[in-house]
Amino acid sequence: MSATRYRRFLKLCEEWPKDESKRGRDLGTFLRQKVASAFREGENTQISDPEKCDRMYESLARINSNMYKEKFPRAKDTSFTGVTVEECRMLLATGNMQQTDEEKKGLWKTVMDRFSSKPEDGPPSEK
């Protein structure tokens, strides 16, 4: 029975789309890694909680088949902020996230430099 579960998860992993714009943060890649670690012995892996495993598979399969997107269609393809799906994808792309992180580091470094710098002449002495 474990072999059947393993094959079902492998098929799901094959069908799950990869988002190349999110290198290292892609849900499909994360899913593949989790399946590989859960089924270390492949078809011979013993499942401690088969019911939980089946529920997890069914949940992931429903997400992958867009069941909820079809069941609860959206009136508009924007959020409450007015940002479109394409704009969200662009903002969440790995390249853009790295650029934002560098900008944050720049600001943090600036703040730290401002508070940690010592005056060049030292404190004024009283005469």
Automatic annotation (TrEMBL):
Keyword annotations from UniProtKB, A to Z: Mitochondrion, Mitochondrion nucleoid, Transit peptide
**Where is this chain's protein located in or outside the cell?**
Mitochondrion matrix, Mitochondrion nucleoid
Q: Single GO cellular component annotation?
A: mitochondrial nucleoid
| BP GO annotations | mitochondrial respiratory chain complex III assembly
Q: Which Pfam families match?
A: UQCC2_CBP6
Does this entry carry the keyword Ribonucleoprotein?
A: no
Q: Where are the transmembrane segments?
A: none
Name this polypeptide is given: Mitochondrial nucleoid factor 1
What organism is this sequence from?
Triplophysa rosa
Classification from the root reads: Eukaryota, Metazoa, Chordata, Craniata, Vertebrata
